[in-house]
Automatic annotation (TrEMBL):
This is Hydantoin racemase. It catalyses: a D-5-monosubstituted hydantoin = a L-5-monosubstituted hydantoin; D-5-benzylhydantoin = L-5-benzylhydantoin; D-5-isobutylhydantoin = L-5-isobutylhydantoin. GO terms for molecular function: amino-acid racemase activity; hydantoin racemase activity. It is an enzyme of class 5 (isomerase). The lineage of its organism: Bacteria, Pseudomonadati, Pseudomonadota, Alphaproteobacteria, Rhodobacterales. Its EC number is 5.1.99.5. It comes from the Bacteria. Belongs to the HyuE racemase family. PANTHER family: PROTEIN DCG1. Pfam families: Asp_Glu_race. InterPro entries: Asp/Glu/hydantoin_racemase (IPR015942), Hydantoin_racemase-like (IPR052186), Iso_Racemase_Enz_sf (IPR053714).
């Protein structure tokens, strides 16, 4: 089969099992002929839960993006809901780069007049609120909610993390009167179909949406602008 698009899906944390889950979610929605490459940010924290973790993840993330650019990868998905280092990644890459928060909330704005976000820990709430404001969608976001679970609980067999996420979505439907829900963590990607069935509402996973958006942008022949803000970094 002819390869149409090559996409790198980068997990900015260092937990390989989460990378495997994210890559599986991307491959499940990819078009025939699209090749999904997975990568983990070596040396990064095991999970990204706050500004410090995000900062510590950036060297590994930038290294993976540089490698992808050298290999001629067509587009990149940064699979962390904090959208770490997106602007810097866009400076390094010729093709389109999408963070899963931006992809998911923009998709939600096209599917419903309102949405809520369900994330992991409470400390992630202000980070996501800031991102959504920057993406110009605060007027459609009813609330950013926390299921009060550590990111790594999503990787633990037998944990009740998925139940807590489901129950928080049900609270969002009841209390926020939202019409769609965005999953605020890449580690929730494998729960999307189950949560949609359990709650009866569109549940949006940024990994799958970003993958398909990259396919669309590449298919339309579009690349990242190299005029001014996203120009390649100056050699120093």
């Amino acid at each position: 089969m002819e390869v149409v698009v090559e996409i790198l899906v980068v997990n900015p944390n260092s937990t390989q099992s989460m990378t495997d889950k994210i890559v599986e979610a991307a491959r499940a929605v990819a078009s025939p002929g699209t090749v999904i490459h997975g990568a983990t940010a070596a040396g990064a924290p095991a999970s990204i839960e706050g500004h410090y973790d995000e900062a510590m993840s950036l060297p590994g993330l930038m290294a993976r993006v540089r490698e992808a650019e050298a290999k001629g990868i067509d587009g990149i998905v940064v699979a962390c809901f904090d959208d770490p280092g997106i602007a810097a990644c866009r400076e390094l890459a010729s093709g389109p780069v999408l963070g899963i928060c931006e992809a998911a909330v923009k998709a939600a704005s096209m599917l419903a007049t309102s949405f809520s976000v369900v994330t992991t820990l409470p400390r992630s709430v202000p980070v996501i609120e800031h991102l959504i404001h920057g993406y110009g969608l605060s007027h459609q976001c009813r609330r950013v909610r926390s299921a009060a679970i550590p990111v790594l609980a999503l990787e633990e067999p037998g944990s009740n993390a998925r139940i807590k996420v489901r129950d928080e979505i049900l609270c969002a439907i009841r209390e926020d009167r939202c019409e769609a829900v965005v999953l605020g963590c890449a580690g929730m990607a494998d729960l999307t179909a189950w949560l949609s069935e359990e709650t009866g509402i569109p549940v949006i996973d940024g990994v799958s949406v970003a993958t398909r958006m990259i396919e669309a942008l590449v298919g339309a022949g579009l690349k990242t602008s190299k005029i001014n803000a996203y120009a390649f970094p100056n050699e120093k």
